[in-house]
Amino acid sequence: MKIASVRSAVLVLGIAIAAACTNATGTTVVTGKQRPAIDPAQVQLYSSKPQTQHEVIALVKADSSSGWSDQQSMDYAVAELKNQAASVGANGVILGQTGSQTGGFVMIDNVAYPYDEQVVSGTAIFVAGQ
């Protein structure tokens, strides 16, 4: 019985280490005119459409379960969202949905444990004069 407990502890530790090393993932669907890629640090987030002239470039989505907390996972997802937007030349993202979803399950001693991932999506835009 003690060996099973040690195996479980080692497995949980291994999963935690693997999760900490995992990067966020993202997707991009180009819906407008793609521009040359820019530095993700130049991408600004908007909670609503900016009042200035802008053009829609793509729909972007990112998720992460890599953080030690939900907030850290969300931070990783937002960073990936900016990477996705920057890769199509967008200098802004109008935020859409944010939240968490079940990312999958981990089996330990024939018991399935769900884990959550933080998800963020939005519309990648190019804001003139920014």
From TrEMBL:
The keyword Signal applies. It comes from the Bacteria. Residues 1-24 form the signal peptide. Keywords: Signal. PROSITE patterns: PROKAR_LIPOPROTEIN (PS51257). This is Lipoprotein. It comes from Ruegeria atlantica.
